[in-house]
Amino acid sequence: MRKRWMSLLVTGLLVGGTLVPASPALAAPTFKVPFPCGQTWSGQTRSDHSPAYAVDFNRTDDQGDPVVASAPGTVDRVTDLGGTSYGKYVRINHGGGYSTYYAHLSGFNVSVGQTVGYGKVIGWVGSTGGSTGPHLHYEQRLNGADIQVRFNGTLALYWGTKSYTSGNGCSSGSGNGTVDTSGTPLTVRSGPGTGYASVGTVADGTRVTIACQTSGTSVTGTFGTSSIWDRIGSGRYIADAYVYTGHDGYIPNVPRC
After folding, report:
1. How many CB atoms lie within 10 A of CB 23?
2. Please, what sign has the CA dihedral across residues 197, 203, 209, 214?
3. What is the DSSP string of 93-106?
4. pLDDT for 6-64, tens place per residue?
5. Dihedral sign, CA of 124, 128, 130, 131?
6. How many CA atoms lie within 13 A of 204 on its CB side?
7. 3-state class (DSSP) for residue 10
8. Which of 64, 104, 131, 169 is deepest in the core (most CB within 10 A)?
9. How does DSSP assign 28-59, residue by residue?
10. Rounded to two decimals, what is the model's pTM?
11. Do 150 and 140 contact (CB within 8 A), yes or no?
């Protein structure tokens, strides 16, 4: 009987005497961090999570912060489970069997059947369902089974906590400026404010590329008083009050961090 089943299997794979190759697996989408361009979030993985490969994202005062689609696709579920499980969550179908889940949202910004792209706000961070505090529960799945999360093709940290900076929805625009401190090196901070740690300095007269701009501690410098901070690298911010950009305020077409 076993030989007969093997014979039938081989026969089923033959067409005109030629083996039919298996269909190649579709490549995974290029998933990005599910938050707006330039934002940095703490992502935690743990072996006792359900499902195990999900990532919980947090940052200070994150209740109500926007959550964005991590890859293009079609929204196929917008569901409110009330005070249990995922609570308010969105699922996006990315094709090829790949999908993403965004859970514990405080509200929705999409509807079923809607096509979304990188950077599209789909909802806001909340603490609905079985959550014990505001955060985003995020999953990547293949054919319904959770898989280890990757951003830009790089595997997330398993197991532990890691900071992730989003490149999601970033425009191709960037700005330039020249540091003007009348000779004193300008302190570079790890975040947009004087309360963040110093991570180096930039010499007076240095030409810098500004990836994005955001609001932070108000600083009085060479060009007046401003609360704008310029990100000049991953985790590297300088006070715009000391940077000549040719603009009074935010630079047009440069994204907000």
Report:
1. 6
2. positive
3. EEETTEEEEEEEEE
4. 333 333 333 334 444 444 446 789 899 999 988 999 999 999 999 999 999 999 999 99
5. positive
6. 8
7. helix
8. 104
9. PP----SS-TT-EEEEEE-TTSSSTT-EEEE-
10. 0.63
11. yes
